[in-house]
């Protein structure tokens, strides 16, 4: 295997792990929302977990295409997506605003990881680079949606 392919596989597996983290985080967030009036937020979180399942599948296929072994776990260092571990604590008080803030932070970290992946000085096969760019755009859209919800909740809280 060429050195460039090994680097590509390592970078792709980092993104696979981030998507595992994202799935785990949103599933935990869904589980922890007890207020039935928050069905819309649960739906958004469900959509984002599904989005990461799709991303994970695409990235896994890219790793296999390059001859690598796809990651099957979450990040171990925790420096990219540790925020998800705090979600349960946040929901202890059923604070939807705080959960949205944590989710936005997680989305920031995911976007940062995709940006870093694309900025690496490696020769990306065009089809794989397009997958990463498409997924990054999708994550940016999700980030913006979470941010809008966060802003709406923050404004509603101020008016009470």
UniProtKB/TrEMBL annotation:
<dbReference type="Pfam" id="PF09537">
    <property type="entry name" value="DUF2383"/>
</dbReference>
<dbReference type="InterPro" id="IPR019052">
    <property type="entry name" value="DUF2383"/>
</dbReference>
<dbReference type="InterPro" id="IPR016920">
    <property type="entry name" value="UCP029477"/>
</dbReference>
<dbReference type="InterPro" id="IPR009078">
    <property type="entry name" value="Ferritin-like_SF"/>
</dbReference>
<dbReference type="InterPro" id="IPR012347">
    <property type="entry name" value="Ferritin-like"/>
</dbReference>
<dbReference type="InterPro" id="IPR011971">
    <property type="entry name" value="CHP02284"/>
</dbReference>
<protein>
    <submittedName>
        <fullName>PA2169 family four-helix-bundle protein</fullName>
    </submittedName>
</protein>
<feature type="domain" description="DUF2383">
    <location>
        <begin position="9"/>
        <end position="119"/>
    </location>
</feature>
């Amino acid at each position: 295997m060429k050195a460039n392919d090994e680097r590509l596989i390592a970078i792709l597996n980092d993104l696979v792990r981030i998507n595992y983290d994202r799935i785990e985080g949103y599933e935990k967030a869904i589980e922890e929302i007890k207020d039935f009036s928050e069905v819309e937020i649960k739906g958004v979180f469900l959509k984002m977990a599904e989005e990461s399942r799709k991303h994970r599948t695409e990235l896994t296929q890219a790793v296999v295409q390059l001859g690598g072994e796809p990651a099957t776990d979450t990040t171990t260092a925790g420096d990219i997506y540790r925020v998800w571990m705090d979600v349960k604590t946040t929901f202890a008080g059923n604070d939807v605003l705080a959960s949205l803030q944590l989710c936005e932070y997680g989305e920031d970290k995911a976007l940062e990881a995709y940006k870093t992946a694309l900025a690496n000085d490696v020769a990306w096969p065009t089809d794989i680079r397009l997958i990463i760019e498409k997924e990054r755009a999708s994550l940016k859209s999700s980030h913006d949606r979470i941010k809008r919800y966060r802003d709406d909740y923050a404004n509603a809280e101020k008016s009470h």
